[in-house]
Amino acid sequence: MYLKKMEIKGFKSFPDKTEILFPHGLISVVGPNGSGKSNILDAIRWVLGEQSMKSLRGDKLEDVIFSGTEKRKEMNYCEVSMLIDNQDKMIDIDYSEISIKRKAFKSGESQFFLNNKQCRLKDIKELLLDTGIGREGYSIISQGKIDEIVNGNSNQRRKILEEAAGITKFRYKKEESEKKLDVANENLERINDVYKEVE
Ligand code: ATP
């Protein structure tokens, strides 16, 4: 499994449709200060469902949409898609290529797509659990992340180790089941109350 291609349009400093290919091997992105290198990483984080504007180096939701320049009008939407090669089936889905896309509008609406079919962020999150490429995965090591890992408390470090060890998926499923169990118990209590009333 590896990241094959990114397509960015209207995201931060990329108003035009921009295609970035990631062939196998080591790749470095070079460019002058402020040319948009970190914006590519922000785009990866954003398409994977990042909701925290602080992590995306902005304040408001629309800060990820191209805000215009002296010569160019601002845009009212942006979209980012990533293409993942999954020939080794490391991601548990019957496709050898997976495309994940996110679209956002100035109105605040945000849409997610999995292989061009609209889906929920939850679907993407569940698909990427334990692969290391999710929003909370360890595949994006940004500036300061190493410090965070070294200086983090045992809980934070444990989260990273659990993701690498493939335990996150089971913890997530356990928490989801517990939530469903709580709802079922509440319903049962309500039914018992009604039953007592009619008795
Ligand atoms: P450095 O080498 O200094 O870290 P960089 O190449 O990583 O720089 P980025 O931080 O990716 O650069 O890009 C910063 C540029 O992106 C700034 O010029 C900023 O004006 C532009 N930018 C950020 N958000 C938007 C936006 N919403 N619309 C237009 N331009 C934006």
Automatic annotation (TrEMBL):
Belongs to the SMC family. Required for chromosome condensation and partitioning. This is Chromosome partition protein Smc. Homodimer. Residues 174-199 form a coiled coil. ATP binds at residues 32-39. Contains large globular domains required for ATP hydrolysis at each terminus and a third globular domain forming a flexible hinge near the middle of the molecule. These domains are separated by coiled-coil structures. It is found in: Cytoplasm. The chain holds residues 1 to 199 of 1177 of the full protein.
